[in-house]
Structure formats: structure tokens, C-alpha cells
Amino acid sequence: MKTRNRMLAAILAVVLAFGLTACGGGGKEEDAESVYKTAMEKMNSLESMAAGMDITVKMSDGSESMDITMDAEMKIQDIKKESMTMSMDMNVGMSGITMAIQAYYADGWYMMDTMGQKMKYQMPLEEAAGQASMGQGMDLSALGKVTMEEKDGQKTLSYEADIAKMKENATAEEYLSFLDSLGLGELAETGLNYQTVEGTMTVNGDGYATSNTIHIVASIEEDGQSLEMDINVAVTYENPGQDVTVDIPDASEYTEIDPSMLG
To answer: What is the spatial distance between Cα 106 and Cα 124, in angstroms, rounded to a whole number?
Structure first.
């Protein structure tokens, strides 16, 4: 089995590519495509956002298996501006152990508080924005099947990705850039394969996405070994369109480190 850092990096590479990006929608029904496009335009125009995410992961390398749970609450203010601030409270459960992580970004510093250690290192805005990305939806042509239902003023899009088209639309350069923005560039040398990408997106009466669910079945090939992953993600956007305030701790309380120490 891979080390914990490698496994978490693999999960983040898969989940962040889809879980927070409102990926889905589009396709063959004009109404569904219009609803999706409008929701994405609205979400991409937001200057601040708050979201909650729950993740369950089943992993196996053929000889061992492991269940992992993650829950996170994220707030972002002044998205993609020089003044951007971000906070994220996350709990990771693995092998009967739960690890709490608090992460922040402000004034060019990425700060992390976990396991009794407060660490910080300088991070360019572009990298921080990549970690906090919530609006880079997948190309509509990559959706092979989509349906839409409407109830009580809310629209629910259910989709299934066309894996072949999804791979065609994601160039190696774009994928490497995405992984680099997460500090996971070394994963580009692994064989990341998606077998299933499907989920739902709920849109409110104002046209904003309010929640996503996504199911991903994927594997990573490395050194002749296959790591299989079955991932379920549920994302809830809190009052989209409303202002968000981010509380940032005193950076002087954090010790500067070389980010390569994190593995």
C-alpha cells in the first residue's frame, strides 16, 4: 500500500479535479445545457464562496484495502484577486485514526495547523487559487448523458461523463498545470485512469449551483502496481451569491518550512 501522503495526494488529485468544480451538465438536452451554462457562469462570477464537502473513499492495491473519510468546510474571499483569503477545516479518517487539519491562505502565505504543528510557506496566488478552484467545469462535449428534473423551484441535473471524450479534452499540459497548482506534479508521471464519472448538480431558482454529488471510479498505475479507488463526494454551497468573511490567524504563530518537507 502507498504511504499515507501518497494516497492522500492521489485522492486530492482525483477529487479536486471534479468534486469542487461543479463538473457535470451539458450534453444532449437544450434545457439541461442552458441551466448548466447559466449556473457555471454565475458560480464563476462569484467573488466569495463557502462550501462543505464530504468524501468517502475505498482503496485497494490488490493485497490490502483501506477506507478513508474526509470532511471539509472551505471559505474563500476575493477569489483570484491579490487580496484573496481562504480557510479550510478538514478531518481525515483513516485506519481508525482521525486527523484534523486547518489550512489558510493570506498575503502570499499558506498556513497549516495539524497534529500540534503550525507551519507556513510562501505560495503564489495562482497555486492557492488552484487549490481553492471551484469553477473550472468540464467541457460540455465530454458529457455523454444528462437528464434534468425540476421540483419545488429547484432543478437537478444528473450526468454521466464520456470518459473517452473527457481524456481527449484534457491535454497533458493542462493536466500537468493542474497538478502543479496543487503541489502534486509528480503524479503526472503516474497513469491516472477514470472508469466512471457520474453525479448530480442541484440548481436553485436564482440559477446558482447549491449542491453536487459525484461518484468516481479510478485507478493509478505506478511502478507496475495498480491502486484502485471508488470515491463518493457530496458538496454543498452555502448561500451562493452572498458575501463570505474569512477569519485568518496570526501568521507569526506559524513556523516557516520548506514545502518539500511535506512529502
So the answer is: 10
Average pLDDT over residues 12-21: 53
Q: Which residues pair with 148 in a beta bridge?
A: 157
Q: Which residue, chain included where needed, has cell 518537507?
A: 261
Q: Tell me what the pLDDT averaged over the chain comes to.
A: 78
CA dist 171 → 112, 132, 166, 176, 187 (Å) = 32, 21, 10, 9, 15
CA atoms of 81 and 75, how far apart (whole Å): 15
> pLDDT by residue (tens digit) across 184-205?
455 555 566 788 888 888 999 9
CA 214 to chain centre: 11
Beta strands in the chain (DSSP E): 48-60, 65-77, 85-94, 97-106, 109-114, 117-122, 143-151, 154-161, 191-203, 209-222, 225-237, 255-256
Q: Which residues make beta-bridge pairs with 216?
A: 197, 231
Phi–psi pair at 192, nearest 5 degrees: -90, 120
| Contact predicate 99/114, CB 8 Å | yes
At CA 45, angle to CA 53 and CA 140, rounded to 5? 75
What cell does 68 get? 478513508
Q: Classify the C-alpha dihedral 52-182-136-163 as positive or negative.
A: negative
Q: Quickly count: other Cβ atoms within 10 Å of residue 212's Cβ.
A: 24
Q: Quick check: 132 pLDDT over 70?
A: no
**pLDDT tens across 17-29, in order?**
554 444 444 444 4
pTM of the model: 0.77
Closest alpha carbon to 210 in 247, 243, 180, 239: 239
